[in-house]
Amino acid sequence: MEPVTRSLIRAAIGLLIAAALGLTGVAAARPAFPLPAGRNAARPIPVGLERVGTAVSTTPRGGALTPARGLVYTGVSCGSASGFAAEVGKHPAVYGEFVNWGQSIHFAFAAAAAAHARLMLHIATGQSTPGHPAITPQGIAQGQGDAYLLGLSKLIAEAGKPIYIRLFPEMNNASNEASAYNLDGSSRGPVFSPAMFIAAWRRVVIVLRGGLVSAIDARLAALGQPPLQGGGAGSLNRPTIAFVWTPETAGTPPIAGNDPINYYPGNAYVDWVGTDFYSRFPNFTGLDRFYKEFPNKPFAFGEWALWGGDTPAFVDQLFAWVNSHRRVQMMIYNQGFLTNGVFRLNLDPLSTAAIRTVLAPARFLANTPEW
Between 199 and 26, whose confidence is greater? Predict the structure, then answer.
């Protein structure tokens, strides 16, 4: 089977749920079930996890690739960047594509370059057959995906532009292959555990940040992982790259083991913290709690969109929240791949007009410095 994009998987899930429950899919930042008491309390980063992360990683060239303080990069994923710009009245500074592990992704770099926008890769573990990922978190941590990472490193170097990598989006969403839990709350086993997710994330970051292969191997060894497979004895490109970590704010299912903090790889391995937010499930209470848990990271909406109705009030409320939470520095609208899909603004003229108004201020940037 050809790799299936994450957005198309989500759309298919949405149709199934719509048929069964009268809804339209799985949203990013909402509780799918009632939250247990006390779930909104902020949780600190586990001290041991954070200490290990700081000890064995390096700072990427270019840092987090944030705009100047108080400014926000606008962006869009999928579809036509120019069409989106015409709708909302502002060119997207960032262009995103959803890709699967092992998929040929030259098209994503070409699309971002054509849009004169900085690329964000939303990389999922993908599917070889339905319900079976192309690679597991354990497989990545053990080096089984190193050939893909080396190829991606080369592709990034050839493009010669700064890049965001939004790795394993919504990892605590049971509809995604990297999740540690099934929708009923049962574990998918140690191969998919949050600890294994963290190990996989850290390996990807260490490899893609590049440098001397001997230094990469030393960092991997410090994590108890095997050396880089196929990297030779030289060095890898050190790109201008930033990693964006975006769980659901509560998790699907919203059980304690599926809390976002359990999947956090550590400050040294994460450049941006963020989440996804859709009008169908506007969980601002959960968004507030999550935002406060990571006070030292720039905040990104890896996906946001209108979903299930023309609701300009949602646009106004979301941007009021953004304007009062100044660590928000990136907002990527997810159009989806379907021309008349549920996220497309041609379905929502009132909301589109509202977006034009809220994006008009100069602090919402239309370009990154390289463009």
Answer: 199
